[in-house]
Amino acid sequence: MAKPPDALLLLGRGGLGSAAKNELQALLQACQQGAPGLPMQLAFVDRNQPALPEALDSLCAALAPADLAQQTIVIQPTMVPDEPALRRWLQKVAMRWLASQAEDARPQLVFARPLLQSDGLVPALLNHLALATSQPDVVAEEGDEGWQTDPVAWSTVPTHQRHVLWCMGPRCVAKGAAALWPRLSQAVQASAPLKQQLQLLQTSCQYPCNQGPLMIVYPDGVWYGHLDADNLVPVLKSHIEGSEACAAHRVHSPRVPPPCSDSDP
């Protein structure tokens, strides 16, 4: 008989709004009700936090430290559809995390089968479809008279001189990009010159993943990498307010920029 897991980690994709996190949180709560006492944690592949390494740290803190080497953590990907290349990369993230732990404090990490490959999915889906016929039809209800009219702002281009593209792809998130996004956003909101000039945008993977977390400033065409909580804001201010690119963290630029340090205002 298979040994039950000692902890569960639900792994999902993030999103621009709160819906992805809320739905995964609801799934976690349902699992907690079904298996009370089993340590559980959420993790996000992209666009949200905690990332997989931080979630594993949190789970291990909830397990018995003396027995970590005998504990099994099951990682359940909830992404639909499954992406084999992404799943393999996530397994490498888990392997790197294991390698960073002391030998006597390395739990077993097991990736469960993707949801679409679950044996119980088809019966559950058919039962769900039968229940769906009792739901209301898609029709305009009272108070929805303006349903054909979109907000005016959806047709208005914001005032800005530059786009700042912040990568929230899986690899940058694993390097801390999701945790840094609030710091970046708050810094722009707190600075009148930055707020007037910049349009902040989150992006999916920008591809030079080993250089992450990545920030790209357009139309200048300057890419910055290896950013963290200490250098992120100084690098951005140096570029925008000083009209120069910071060479210490420059990954790519169409021209050679003057040097700067992380301590520049």
Features of this protein?
Rossmann fold, flat, 4-stranded parallel sheet, 265 residues, alpha/beta
In short:
The protein has 265 residues and is of the alpha/beta class. It has 8 helices and 9 strands.
What does it look like?
- The chain has 265 residues and is of the alpha/beta class.
- It has 2 domains: 7-117, Rossmann fold (3-Layer(aba) Sandwich), CATH 3.40.50; 157-252, Glutaredoxin (3-Layer(aba) Sandwich).
- The chain is 34% helix and 16% strand.
- It is built from 8 helices and 9 strands.
- The strands form 2 sheets. The chain has a 5-stranded mixed beta sheet with strand order 6-5-7-8-9. A 4-stranded parallel beta sheet has the order 2-1-3-4, sandwiched between helices.
- The longest helix is centred in the first third of the chain and has 16 residues, at 19-34.
- It is flat.
